[in-house]
UniProtKB/TrEMBL annotation:
The lineage of its organism: Bacteria, Bacillati, Bacillota, Clostridia, Lachnospirales. It comes from Lachnotalea glycerini. Belongs to the polysaccharide lyase 9 family. Residues 13-325 form the Pel9A-like right handed beta-helix region domain. InterPro entries: Pectin_lyas_fold, Pectin_lyase_fold/virulence, Pel9A-like_beta_helix, Polysaccharide_Lyase_9. Gene3D superfamilies: Single-stranded right-handed beta-helix, Pectin lyase-like. It comes from the Bacteria. This is Pectate lyase. Its cofactor is Ca(2+). Keywords: Calcium, Lyase, Metal-binding, Secreted, Signal. It is found in: Secreted.
Length: 396
């Protein structure tokens, strides 16, 4: 709505509403006259507006757009719009079980050059993949923020930042996402940071068929802050945090250095924290805790350089105040002493035993979140008051 004030024009944000029982022929401007679809709400809304999503299950979708590879069920092409639950006590569920898999599925695509889109308090489930290589709950090519958004029980990646995609995930969960073929099994991550820099804060990934967090081919530096990865055991690569690497992709002129801090990785079938053949320093790893990751808690494998893809034990990684327990503590690390101070395996006089910790029950990592999406209060890997590891790890 535009209001004339003297000779100037002032823009006022508008509110729109959608409901599973709504109708796209409605006005959509009041609680009692909601639209049925996000697609219709986006058509009506402008930058600065809010679309309130009423509770219930949404599953009556049409394909908004397609290209040679994808069907985009929701194609977000306008900037500056917020999509949020009308009530955090009754967050909407978007169920994509009826969508065709004639192409890859992107349940939501945030298109290139779209900025400042926000999704707050919602659930996405049953995104199918069929025989395709992969599908995605959220494909972010532009810029978006996700807060208290959960992707679960999909055959698709949860959050997939790609190309020049940027943004942040705050208090989001991505779990039980498992591909249905050998190919999609190995392409279904909880969180994919393959764009131009993403921040993950207080997020959790568990039991996804590939990795919990994957930042292969990233153009920009990603930050993983107070995030958890548990039980990646469903058949893919199965790392908790795969940070870095380019595979056969193009390495950027400046190789980004990521930040991994106050994170927790437990009971994953591969590595807890993995530098993944980075042609340079993959990350600064600070105050992280790794427990019982089958192929190593910290794996610092690098490559020589942007132009020499020979694998080497990492020489440039920086690790301080980290804890590793049970299994291989750290491997493929040829680091100068100054780069690995005050870790549980490097600090003089420190020993690490089960008795340092209040609990070794990693399943606590999947407990329900608290008020406003706070991480659950757990005792797993919390230090006892008499532990000589004080100041180390993610619960110090």
């Amino acid at each position: 709505m535009m209001i004339l004030v003297g000779t100037s024009v002032t823009a006022h944000a508008a509110d729109y509403y959608i409901s599973p029982n709504g109708n796209d022929s409605n006005q959509g401007t009041t609680y009692g006259t909601p639209f049925k679809s996000i697609t219709k709400a986006q058509e009506a809304a402008s930058s600065g507006d809010t679309v309130y999503m009423l509770g219930g299950t949404y599953k009556d979708f049409t394909i908004a757009s397609s290209d040679s590879n994808y069907n985009y069920v929701h194609d977000i092409t306008k900037s500056g719009i917020t999509y949020r639950a009308y009530s955090s006590k009754n967050p909407p569920i978007f169920d994509f079980s009826n969508i065709t898999t004639s192409k890859r599925v992107a349940a939501f695509r945030i298109a290139k050059n779209v900025t400042n889109v926000t999704f707050l308090c919602m659930n996405v489930t049953k995104v199918p993949v069929g025989s395709q290589k992969q599908s995605e709950c959220f494909r972010i090519e532009g810029n978006a923020t996700f807060n208290q958004v959960n992707c679960y029980a999909n055959a698709a990646n949860g959050f997939y930042f790609v190309n020049n995609g940027t943004g942040q995930c705050i208090k989001c969960d991505s779990y039980n996402n498992i591909g249905t073929t050998s190919t999609s099994l190995g392409n279904t991550d909880g969180f994919g940071a393959h764009g131009n820099g993403v921040v993950f804060k207080e997020c959790r990934a568990w039991y996804n068929s590939d990795d919990g967090y994957d930042s292969i081919t990233s153009k920009g530096a990603n930050t993983f802050d107070t995030c958890w990865a548990y039980n990646m055991t469903a058949g893919g690569d199965s790392n908790g945090f795969k940070i870095g690497g380019y595979g056969t992709g193009t390495v950027p002129g400046t190789v980004p250095v990521h930040t991994v801090k106050y994170c927790l990785a437990a009971n994953n079938n591969a590595h807890g924290f993995y530098a993944n053949h980075q042609p340079g320093q993959a990350a600064t790893w600070t105050n992280n805790t790794a427990y019982n990751n089958k192929h190593g808690n910290f794996n610092m494998l690098e490559r020589v350089s942007r132009t020499d893809s020979t694998d080497i034990s990492g020489t440039r990684e920086v690790l301080h105040y980290n804890i590793a327990l049970k299994g291989i503590l750290i491997e493929y690390a040829n680091l100068p002493q100054a780069n690995v101070t005050n870790n549980s395996w490097t600090k003089s006089g420190v020993t690490v035993t089960n008795d340092d910790f209040q609990s070794l029950d990693a399943s606590q990592m999947t407990w329900a979140r608290g008020t406003n999406g706070t991480l659950p209060t757990i005792t797993f890997m919390h230090l006892k008051s008499n532990s000589d590891l004080k100041g180390m790890g993610c619960f110090n």
